[in-house]
Design brief:
mainly alpha; 0% strand
Length: 76
């Protein structure tokens, strides 16, 4: 499942938690880098990819991983 297929409200609602986890994974990221604007997931992923040097697939996988951790109750 791609990030675009994920429920946008679900992503938006959990974004602060996911954002914190992404900042732990990639300390280079700032709040500005992770500003989530509904409908602009591609831009967000591109910013993370550019800042971290990771592949798009790795960035998408991390976002999905942290989202699934949050929803399974294993998150913070």
């Amino acid at each position: 499942m791609s990030l675009e297929c994920m429920n946008k409200l679900e992503i938006k609602g959990d974004w602060n938690i996911i954002k914190g986890l992404l900042k732990q994974k990639w300390a280079k990221l700032t709040d500005h880098d992770l500003d989530f604007i509904e409908g602009q997931q591609d831009e967000l992923l591109g910013r993370i990819q550019k800042k971290t040097g990771e592949s798009r697939e790795a960035v998408e996988a991390a976002v999905k991983e942290y989202s699934s951790v949050k929803h399974s109750g294993k998150g913070h």
